[in-house]
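Homework-ish question, so no full write-ups if that breaks the rules, but can someone show me the predicted structure for this set?
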Amino acid sequence: MNCKTLVVELEDYLDEELDSELRTSIEVHLAKCKNCKLIVDTTKKTIQIFCNSEPAPLSEDTRHRLHDALVKKLGRPRA
Ligand SMILES: [Zn+2]
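A: Not a homework solution, just the prediction itself:
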């Protein structure tokens, strides 16, 4: 597990759709990577805000935009 893999799997992780082996890999990575921990915490909060303000769960479009933003953030360390 590295930071890029984590971001790719993040949505399924937050949706609790990952198999337990992959979840464990992510949790092990989160325990030692502050950057990813921050991303996960921020993403969780963002999802909560979306859920509180809209009756429907995240739309596909929102999920894709969120995902793209995270990938860009990781791809550009000085963003
Ligand atoms: Zn990381």
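Now go work out the reasoning yourself. Hint: The helical segments are 3-14, 20-32, 34-53, 60-75.
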